[in-house]
Amino acid sequence: PQGPEEARAFVNAFLKRSMPRKTDEAIQDIMTRKAVVLEHYSKKKKLQKRRKQKGFTAKERRELRLFEIKPEEQRYTNFLPLHELWKQYIRDLCHGLKPDAQPHMIQGKLLKADLHGAIVTVTKSKCPSYIGITGIILQEFKHVFKIITKEDKLKVVPKFNNVFSLETDGFISYIYGSKFQFRASERSAKKFKLKGSIDL
């Protein structure tokens, strides 16, 4: 067993190691007390700010040509499986497109549906050259549709001043492009109002 002097020396040395910021006089002052409270100095960790991963800007997407379809890939037959998937998607969305389904209910769901893969036809237009264009929608932007025709030609058709027809299992729906100038993501949350008459 240690004697009082040895124990005192041990505690004194221990306090110096444990509290390096304290002076000898402060340590001696602590030694005179009945209770000793050891202080712990922790190094402050620098919090690293997490950088949010930002997507590409519109300019970068254009420079990288992310949404461009290469000419050798512009084949109508390549996108027929996409059309079949779209038809199944619409059947599931409209609960089978039954004959007794209410047309305005189906129309409301088609207005918010994703049209990539749908076959559309330009039925009315203020520009005669657009009338009769039929094909699969490959890309939908705010103001235009990109359509691949059976002749393997990629057509860029503006929505403005054009009326498109959409046929699904015998149900024909008409899209008035002038009132349809939204991105696909915006349409899903858009509330469309019923209007009595719509002009080009």
From TrEMBL:
Coarse class of the protein's main subcellular location: nucleus
Domain of life: Eukaryota
Gene3D superfamilies listed in its UniProt record: Ribonuclease P/MRP, subunit p29
Record-linked InterPro entries: RNase_P/MRP_Rpp29-subunit (IPR016848), RNase_P/MRP_Rpp29_sf (IPR036980), Rof/RNase_P-like (IPR023534), Rpp29/RNP1 (IPR002730)
Any single Gene Ontology cellular-component annotation: ribonuclease P complex
Pfam families linked to this entry: RNase_P-MRP_p29
Biological processes per GO annotation: rRNA processing; tRNA 5'-leader removal
Signal peptide positions on this chain: none
Keywords per UniProt: Nucleus, Phosphoprotein, tRNA processing
GO molecular function: ribonuclease P RNA binding
Compartments (UniProt record): Nucleus, Nucleolus
Subunit organization: Component of nuclear RNase P and RNase MRP ribonucleoproteins. RNase P consists of a catalytic RNA moiety and 10 different protein chains; POP1, POP4, POP5, POP7, RPP14, RPP21, RPP25, RPP30, RPP38 and RPP40. Within the RNase P complex, POP1, POP7 and RPP25 form the 'finger' subcomplex, POP5, RPP14, RPP40 and homodimeric RPP30 form the 'palm' subcomplex, and RPP21, POP4 and RPP38 form the 'wrist' subcomplex. All subunits of the RNase P complex interact with the catalytic RNA. Several subunits of RNase P are also part of the RNase MRP complex.
Protein family according to the UniProt entry: Belongs to the eukaryotic/archaeal RNase P protein component 1 family.
Function: Component of ribonuclease P, a ribonucleoprotein complex that generates mature tRNA molecules by cleaving their 5'-ends.
Protein's name according to its UniProt entry: Ribonuclease P protein subunit p29
Organism ancestry: Eukaryota, Metazoa, Chordata, Craniata, Vertebrata
Recorded name of the encoding gene: Pop4
